[in-house]
Specification:
By secondary structure, this protein is mainly α. It folds into 2 domains: 1-66, no CATH class; 67-269 and 317-421, no CATH class. It is 75% helix and 0% strand. The protein contains 17 helices and no strands. The protein has helices at residues 2-19, 22-34, 49-63, 74-91, 96-119, 123-151, 168-187, 192-211, 215-231, 235-252, 255-262, 271-289, 301-307, 309-312, 324-358, 365-384, 394-436. It is globular, with a radius of gyration of 23 Å.
Length: 437
Amino acid sequence: MRDIVVTLAVFGAVPFILVNPWVGVIVWSWLGYMNPHRLSWSFAFNMPFAQVTAIATLLGLLLSRERARISWSLPTQILVALNLWMTVTTLFAIEPAAATDLWLKTIKIQLMTFVTLALINDRKKLHSLIWIIALSLGFYGTKGGVFTLTGGGINQVLGPEGSFFSGNTETGLVLVMVLPLMRYLHLNEARRWLRFGLVAAMLLTGVAILGTQSRGALVGGIAMAAMLWVKSRNRLPLFMMMMVVIPPLLAFMPDSWYNKMRTIETYEEDTSAMGRIVAWEFATKLALKRPIGGGFGCFTPESYASYAPEIAAVNDKYQDAHSIYFQVLGNHGFIGLVIYISLLLATWRLASRVMRRSKSSPHLKWAYDAAAMTQVSLVGFMVAGSFLGLAYFDLIFSLIAIVVITDSLVEQELAEASSANLAGRSGQLSHAGAWSR
């Protein structure tokens, strides 16, 4: 039944996408973040729904009479540079076949990021995009929170099978990133019943973050929660809610959870943590010996033996990077890492600009909140991402697109307000001149 519902929903949306291609961005985001086909058990599980949606969106974009315009702010320019550099490193990759496959997977996400920048061009569309991301990932946050509470916190919360975030650490990072988007919706929602629903979803998502039993998610969650309080309006009610909810929740978690979290302090004795450090050391040695990086898919036993033989000689496990920073360093060298970090920093700075320009305008309160909550998500990503390799996950690029689009909309509204003021003053002067004559 689920297979039929998802199939009908996707193919039924195609005519609407061809007429209004921005709808394709919404459907594609739903498929990419919720992975509804992965919740089925039959023919829909491996259906290329995202590919069908992307093709329909591109066709709709070509056929549409609506002008598509991308805001070429600094993050957009750096994103272009990152894509060009990833292409270069793929051409010279250590593992050409694996690198090409992963490059194709990544470049599809990048293409749809630029399509998002082109088609999401007003507040209504942007709000819809944030809603679909929050609902899609919030589904797993809410479900995971209930699972943790009913199961006593013993079992790990996991994402959908075959997705970017199927593992517990990946799920934890994703939930840390989406919770601030729920807060943005909560701050800008007038309907009381929806506000209560969003509060419940945020609380359950917080429970699910602990339920992943991911140490990286715990550290990222703490950083995100602190930044959420700093960046939010109405800080006192939020602080009081945190003080009421967090202590009982921590008391609820079982001893096994505490035993695992305590290994953060004794990482030398933890095999998983030491494996990460070994992978980070390998990525550094690879980048030093091969400044262009190893390309996608370079964390292999053969690469360990070639570029870090002293590590390979004493380790029989060859882990992936387990860090967004060392993942990019190993794949694309120091140049790629500089571009990637520059992209994150430029997005942060652009969000700060949006906040400065919208802070004093009641009509732009939503833009202030969107920029502030995106910064909170970025903090969660940059902290929790230090411990797992999701450097190319869709959500970080959606956050970048949200900031760029918000900045563009603020620019348009301020320009229109300025023109209206000038026109008003001009009319007043003309009226005064007529009386003087």
